[in-house]
Structure formats: structure tokens, C-alpha cells
Request: fold
Amino acid sequence: MSDILFSHSYYYRLDPKQWKNHTPFPPLGTLYAASLLRKSGYQVDLFDTNLLDNPRAIAGKLENNKPHYLVIYDDGFNYLTKMCLTTMREACFEMIAIGKQHQCTVIVCSSDSTDHYPKYLDKGADYILQGEGEASLLELINTLENKTSVATISGIIYTDPDTHQIQINPKRQIIQNLDELPLPAWDLVDIDSYKAQWQKSGQPFTLNIATTRGCPYKCNWCAKPIYGNRYNAHSPNYIVRHIAHLKSAFGVTRFWMCDDIFGLKPNWVQEFGKLLDEQQLSIRYYIQSRADLLLKEDTITVLARTGLEEVWIGAESASQKILDAMDKGTTVAQIYEATRLLKKNHVRIAFFLQFGYLTENQEDIQKTIAMVKELLPDNIGISVSYPLPGTKFYDKVKEDLKQKSNWTDSDDLDMMFHGTYSSEYYRKLQRLVHKEYRISQGLYFLKNLFRDPVRPDKLKSIVKLGYYIPSAGIDRYQIKALEKP
Reply:
């Protein structure tokens, strides 16, 4: 069997905001693909780009390994790869070129290559995998090894050698029984290098696990080029086995469940908790979910009992008008109730917020700021509306798109279309909302200083009021000048 070198095209060092956080995750999707190919008899290795400076180091790996195939397989579970950042695209193009210089057949699987396959083929990629790639990759390499035609392989895009035209084969059915997949090839990862980064962050070392694939909800701005709208789940038994393996191999006890939606399947969480108890596995974890899925106290109680410490919900906005325009399917009242129940059960709550959606005005923005200050979530993440191909939102604004179509890095926040306000306004708004939030949080801690247990992080928030209050005042003054649409 031929050698396969797996890699991916995300570099934390090329994304300053993420590198500063020091909380990197190994490329889980890449490890799943490598594990499946290894189980099928191929010799595999990994060139992990996450912590590297640039793509050029892959040349040495290719020179030493001399693989037949270079598979640049991005981690579809990581939201950062779904952002299709141009810095990472250029890095991937360089990796493709180096791979071709070393006579490799180059195969690419990523959100960006699915959206922009002509660019990747033009740069020298031999094949692009559409969507979920493991099964397509295995069939493709088996076919190439047997020297037979790839014309009938579902889920691939390539340039036909006879017609020199781009051939887009039919899409492949997604894997429905996820438990058929072997556990990811964690042994290929230098875990110590990740632990060293997490130590700099001051947070407990955390690894990423995906319990599901896909999301059945229809938020019209959400790009799903890899797993789509179908929702399939691993069994609780598979996930507990995965956790036990990681705990045994690396001593990790904290996990990021990187599903789009965690625990949606009825009774899944209850069975998960039962198996954790039976195997005496004590863990902590955090998840993504929706406000409308967190309205039953018994659900939250079970989640908390199994080790849930934090939930990130896509709150997006406190304007019902905007939520409806997004086809979000949630209400502002549900955000308030989910927050109340999570706090009652001592589970941290964090909000994803999005500004700049179509028809947004000052009233909508001020409602969102007021909600954040009133509910005081434990954390917030702020972005602006970002149209990506394949979404209804993109179709709505594509006639109004600017020349720049993708962000450079995850902190870019450039408006890709002509929104209500300028990019400069939304960048300033992002900073101001963070400061308003920190001020409200610090004042709350100050007010309850002698009522609640004193913690260093609370004292730090109180001390930082001396910076945030005057700084926010300056931002408010500056943003007023930018409010004219």
C-alpha cells in the first residue's frame, strides 16, 4: 500500500487573535480521515500545521517520507476552517505547489475548496473532495491504486485529463452510522506541544470531541459545506469509549464538544451520563447549543450532572426582527429563560452575538447591548454578518458584495456587503460592546463583593473598571461620528 501524508491548512500563528488565546485544538476531522485510511491498510502520517509559522516546512516532511499522496484535509469540526480565511487559502496553495514539486497526487478537502474548487484545481490540486470526505477519499485512493477510472466516484471534483474541463461528480451520501468510523488517529499528534500552549492560557488542557455531525436548523447565514443539514450522532457508548481512551492516553479530563448542536437526540444525554457513571469517568466539558433547547430544567440538570460547565448559545441579537430575518427559529424570551435556568443550575452561559445583519438599525443594536448588560453572561463572542457561498444570506446579498469576498483572519470583521454601517463602525462597535459588558460585569462583582465568595478573577474585573470606564467613554464618542448609514 502507498504512503499517505495527511495535513491541513489552518495555522494558528497566522491568525493573531487565535494564537494570542493559546487554546489550540488538534485537527479532529483530519485524524478521523487518517484513521479510516490506516484501518484500510494504508501507511499514514500527519504533518500538523496548527502550531507552525508557515507552510514551507512541509517540504522536509515530503522529502523524508516520499508519500504518493498528499491529502490536505481540513478539520470540518473547527468553526475557524468554515470561515474560509484567505491567509489559510494562500497557505494551502503553497502546500499544493510543494506537494506537486515532490510528485505527489494532491487531494484537498475543506470548506473553502468546496466553495472555490476552480481556484484550487488551477493551483495544482488533483482532486477536491466535496463535503464529508472520508468515504470519498478511501474510494478515490483505492481506485487510483487500482489504476481504474474515477468517473463514477461520488463526492469528488477534478479536471478531466481528456477534455481539460472541470468534472463535478454527484455528491456522496453522508455517513449515517458514525460508529462505523474508527477512533481518530490521536497517536499521530504531538500532544505535548498542545499542552504547552494551553499552559500559557492559564486554562486546563482541553481536547476536542465531536459527538454528532450536521445541524438540522436553517439559520440562513450558516454555511454547512461539509456536513450539511442532516444530523447524525455517535452512540453514547462510542463517545464514552473515546473519552476513556483520551483520558488514559493523555490524562485529559476536560473536553470541548465541538458539535454544532450537542445532545439534540432524545435521551442521548441521559444514556451518556449513565455510562460515565458506570465507568467512573469524571469529566468537565463545554458545548454549543440553542436557547430553545435549554428550556427544561430536567435537561439542564442532567447536563450539569454529567460534567457540563459552560454552554455557548447562538443568541445573535436581542431584536426579534433580526432573529426572524435570520430564520433563527428562536425568540428573545427563550434567550432570557435559558440564561436563567443555566445560571440557576450553576452552568456558565456564553453568547455568540452577530451585528450587521440586513435591516439592522440603532434600535436593534441597542436592544442587544441592553440584553448583554442585563443578563450578564459569563462570556461573549462578537462577529459581524459574513456571507459565505451556499447560504440563503449569500444569495440575498450577492448582488451587493464588495470586491473582497473573504476575511483575512478571524478578527478581520470587514463587511463583505454594503450594510447599514461601515466596517469601521462595526469594528468599533465590537470593541465598545466588549467594554460595556466588562463594565457591567465589574460593577456587578463590586456590588456583591462581600456577598459572594471572593475570587481572583472577580477582583481583576473590579480593578479593570479603571481602564474600561474611560476607554468606553472615548469609544462612545468616536462611534457617534460613524453612525450615519
Notes: The domain at 3-168 is CATH 3.40.50.280 (Rossmann fold).
